[in-house]
Amino acid sequence: SLRMKLEGCACDVESHLYSFSFAPNPEWNELYSSQPEILAYLKKVCKDFDLYKLIAFKTEVLEARWDDDQRVWILSVKNRDTNETTVVEANFLISSSNAFGNPSTPEKFRSFEGPTYHTAKWDKNYDLTGKNVAVVGNGASGIQLIPTIAKQAKHLSVYQRTASWVLDRNNYQYSWITKTLFRYVPGLTWAYRSFLYFRKEFLVFPGLLRGGFFSKLFTKMSLRMLEKQVPNEEIRKKLIPNYELGCKRVCISDDYYPTFMRDNVDLITDPIIQVEKNIIKTANTEEKVDALILATGFTMYAYLFPMKIYGLKNVELSEHWNFDTYYGIITNNFPNFFLLLGPNTALGHNTVIFMIECQVNYILKMIKYMLRHDFDSVNVSKKAQDDFLSQLHVDLERTVFVSECQSWYKKDGKIFTLWSSNSLSYYYRTLFVKHSDFEFTKKSKYTL
To answer: pTM here?
Structure first.
């Protein structure tokens, strides 16, 4: 959400949850905060904890190689201002790169001759007022963008490949009284955050289990909202998904469905067959547009791209792992390399900030253990990783994530993004390090 500066960009997790447990913010203005407010919060956290001095901005890690003789990672790092490349050594390497770093731009749209913007690379300086605009895609980003664009554009065409399940957002602003109470009543912010968290754990997550009561309830709620907000039966049919709720990311919005009742908005479900100059063609339509907006998501499986990570025997990560990890934190044959929000640790129901904090605590426990016992490298055993993955995919079978749909959760039919249960289960499983699952080596020549 920080990189995406598109119109209407906001978080779909409540503000008091989409924040660090150690840095509560009583000043959130809304239940679901916008991108500028979240960015301001993170800047404040960096300032309060004096983190700016530890951050190297405009710096790109080109590659990292494990030196098994010295037991260190050797990084090749480039300064984007000067293009100067330097070498950095580290005992431990932790990647906090996210999977939303590589926008997906289908080849057919690159021939469009007018202004083209991906939602991840939004240009606020381009004025859409009075323009004929086309938006391709209606996932989480598109659903936030489309209502705002419809109010600005002369005409908006939304090209939809697959309908999304949508639930009420019910956003509201916190009153000054509420914020004052959060600010001065001890424990109130924490209690409210806990309420939001456990509501998602015990009411929302069950809706992602196949065939359960909550799954059926959320489906009825979404269809009821659609029927209420889109009285036009022809348009409404186009907006009904043909897959189970939760197989793809469930979106939340108060104004997405009503947008299609506007006179200046068309919903087009025919596949785009050609883009020529500034004309978009389907089997039944041909439209000239002034601007093209791509809400076409990200290349999720290009994890860590374009950075190269070389582990034992000089094997490159992307050629080796197939997104196989141990609790999304460490992967076999890459010693002292840890991941934050790695494969199979994203959530479909709650805040990933909680997952990241679990992972940070786990990594710190591992490093402290190694320091106490004079170890200089750690590698998860292949058996421990395989056993974990085997149980993970058994557990995933009970969720709607594995049902039939085309989703960024999957690659070649394999769920590689999402955790298989609620986040509390992840907390308990990562609370302690099971040292028998790892291979440790003692210090030799190098001193930590």
So the answer is: 0.93
